[in-house]
Protein 1
Amino acid sequence: MKFLLDFLFRVLQLFTEPYFLVFLAIVIIALLKRKNKCKNLRIGVFIVTVIMVILIGNGFLGKLISGYLQKSYIRISEIKNTSAQNPIIVVLGGGVVDIDNTEKLHTMSYSRMVTAYQLYHEYRRNNQPCKILISGKGRGHISEAELFSEDFKKMGVPDSDIIKEDKSMNTYQNAKFSSQIINRMNPSSLYLVTSGFHMKRSVALFQTFGLKPIPQASDFIDTEITIFPNSYNAAFTFVMLKEVVGIWQVQLYNIFGMNK
């Protein structure tokens, strides 16, 4: 059952890839062209393709998805008075890039780092203990957790307040492996730091493993309504579409108890 659903969602993820959608439309039109009786259907496929390009490229679809993914976290992400004792701040890795054989954190990682540090600083300036758990291995030679750790130390966070979870390769594993560490530490409260568009799925997965994180979205993305389609809107729309499919996958797997 799980294998079948994994395959289904892998196929569904293809429909969030722009090149695949264009390729699919071309193939369908080419196949239909071989049958003269399908002229109206070819025209229909072409019109649907054009409409989708417009909706994705002019920012309309992205604007709707952006609200669905992020609206709930805009106000809750504002750092308020910290009163919880012995909290853990979980920061999810945002990827690693390799430039000229030098591995650096992806640009999304830095907003997450700043948000985590701001929250950590609120506790420390009141002389309250606080830990930062960095979750993520990434696909480079150096783990995201290690790269995050190096930068946190430069910001003044002592090594004793940093916990590295450097095995996870995706959000599901972020939640699974982090939960094992968190349950052993039994903190009074748990904060989860990641990008706004990524928060809904992340929270759902952490809840799957019995945790109740307080979301702290580090950054938000949105599209701009434009007359003419552009690549900016298209890029962010497809990123958010992938998240929507991922959320559906989490919800369905939870129904069948397949996320443990």
Protein 2
Amino acid sequence: MTRSGGDAIVVSDIRKSYGDLKAVDGVSFTVAEGEFFGILGPNGAGKTTTLEIIEGLREADSGGVTLLGENPWPRNVGLLPRIGVQLQGSAFFEKLTAREQLETFSSLYGVSTKIVDEMLEIVGLTDKANTREDKLSGGQRQRLSIACALAHDPDVVFLDEPTAALDPQARRNLWDVLRAIQERGKTIVYTTHYLDEAEILCDRVAIMDHGRILAMDTPAALVRGLDAPTRIMLERGSMSLEQIRGFIGVDDVSEDDSSLTVITRKPAPVLSALAEHGNLDGLQVRTATLEDVFLDLTGREYRA
């Protein structure tokens, strides 16, 4: 994490309703300069509306936002050169190459087009500089969208589900781009449905549902706070259930068609006992993750 001190964003009890729907219902948090801050939640949780209020794209019904020391609403044109926004659905100028797209965005902000080559390199599109936007793959278009949001070298970057619909390789490549952005001292605020991604990239996360923040901390602290058991998976038939139940630290053990699953809150003595019986081959250990925290807070029901 690269922090230069101070808060880049201060959100104080913001609220936004549409009729009876409370899209944002008393949300408050701060984001430090240089921090990578994630806003997580199921569909309809209020993530995008919260971002739009912070960005100055939407007016809150009540509450306040300070962005880089200024109020983003009414639309604050003085902030525009200092923020970069990548929306869920990005639109590009028709029939322009990747380089031309970036040159156009740079010129709109009065920035020298000399930065274009640097942006193309950061997002890994140097070899696609002369390729038309509509000929790029989905992952390449996402990276170009982020490059356009960075073309004027903003201090704060907002990314709304930047890795949505990307294949695993493109998503991992984009992680490197996001890390490179933060290493340049930028503050990043983003939303995602990929909990593994948030756990790896974010300094802190806020988990939202029904317009409210349910929990906020570092991913590691949230996982520790869940106090979930460890699951140890063995190949079925490697030991009997009775043997495993006799080990110190075993809370429960179950069996399915392919494996044995040991539940424990004291994995060390259980693993030691398994090692003594020569049963470490093929063993898998699963501890709690940010996804477990998310599901514990928001539930498991399907959200359209």
Protein 3
Amino acid sequence: MKRTFELNFEDMMNISKKDLLLSISSSEGRTVMAETDVAKQPIVYGVSNPELAAAFGADMITLNLFDFDAPFIFGIDDKDLAISDASDMVNKSAEIQKILHRNSADRDYIRKIKNVVGRLLGVNMEPIPKNINYCEGRKLNKKNLEKASELGFDYIVITGNPKTGITNEDILNGIKEAADILGDKAIIIAGKMHGAGSDNIYDPKVLQDFSKAGADIILIGAPGTIPGLDFELCRRQISAIHETGKMALTAIGTSQEGANLNVIQDMALMSKMAGADIQHIGDAGYGGIALPENIAALSIAIRGKRHTYRRMAYSLRK
């Protein structure tokens, strides 16, 4: 089985859930995930943030704020509209609506996006509490889970954006629902990278409960990202996850994805020493993506320039 940083374009397009989990496990902590906010204009004109994250060394790209009711990725879907500011959005609203209608009816939409980005694609899905007003197309529910399976996402991430009030119980219930619907179609990643308007997770037992509920990979904050989460606590949490036979993902999701290179490198090395199987870097640098050089810095820190450059060069090899 190839390791994730050895997967080429064809591998990425056709890999099964079972083989992807084996590929991640075989990589010995050297898998890089980058999150991008697809509801924002990209930071570089003419190229989407997912493509940029891929170019700087990410193996897996997670789409944040993706709307299942109105699929649209800036930098890809608006390439013929030449939108540069808010007035363009208003003036070309009719054209945008046509694109949204077309995308909503396209069962191969995400497969086509994968063909552009050349990476494994996942999506954030949020188990929003009933008392929180939130966009329906971004919620974790039966309808959106079925769409995620149909569209061909490689994985989903059950977590919470800031101020959503998502609790540990919400995540636990979301895992159970996702496991019933997705089966062997997509990997389920679940956990918290910050409080999400509720509480941070410190108790390893909570993480084991996520695993037993059906999550394939458990998400926790990287050392130094949330108050009190140091290397030792991170190591204990990951050990508890591994005891259940599941893998662990450490996330930089507290806007530190826009920090200096040495901060990213320190977090990456501490996460690797703690036993992380995947390392995630979030979307809060500028304009819905980590600083691109920080994606590369994380990759180089945990797998060196040789494997980082391979991943960058494999971008669209068919």
Protein 4
Amino acid sequence: MKRTFGDHLILALLIAAACVWMLPMLWVLAMALKPNAMLVQSTSGVLPWPHTFEHFAALMRVSLTPRWLLNSLLVAVGMTALTLVLSSLAGYAFARIAFPGRRAVFLLVMAGLMIPEQAVLVPLHAMFAGWNLHSTYFSLIAPRLAVPMGVFLMTQFFKAVPRELEEAAELDNAGRLKVFWSVMLPLSRPALTTLGIFTFLYAWNDFLWPVVTAAQPEMYTLSVGLGSLQGNFAMSEGLGFLMASAVFASAPMLIIYAVFQRYIVQGIAMTGGK
């Protein structure tokens, strides 16, 4: 289909908006690659010349940075996998299984969207302190597994799947679990990918709960660990070190989003069912 002048104008405006949106990221990257001697004189410009990787090398020389990176990967991957399991099971139950009180339970789950995480911070801290589970991977992962938005996303997706597909499987004597595993889960790949990406990014960026539960530096996630460096050490290393830490922490998120962005669009489009 031939594009009109209006289509070209909209495309040009979107490209311009994208360039403006990317300028701060390019500026941060440029400062991360500039020597501190240049940054002392001026922080303007997005062309890092002359450039240096010393700030990134200094960041990796911090003894616990690799451990913090490993902690973030373990927490993000574990939280993502468990969230996908729980949300898909709950979403399928709400969408397809007519059990007593289904509507009331679903509304109760959705009510969790209205409760800010700060409101349950003190009870969570007291609970895990009573169990003596602070500074463990369990304490970093478990409180974030209750994801009402994930349940809602999977429920809406399963509602949009034609019932005829399930009925065809049931005619072949497939049980409820078999239908879920062999029919519904393969069809829900776009929604699962979308939920997985959002969960991973949330887990990677999470700061409030990890800074509460991770009392030992060895259990810091990357966001908490790099935040702890933005004191005397960062001041001694200069502005370039701070920008390098920001690039180091955000690079995995940008890569994941760039690779899986089409699945996000598909997943959101396919969850608009009745």
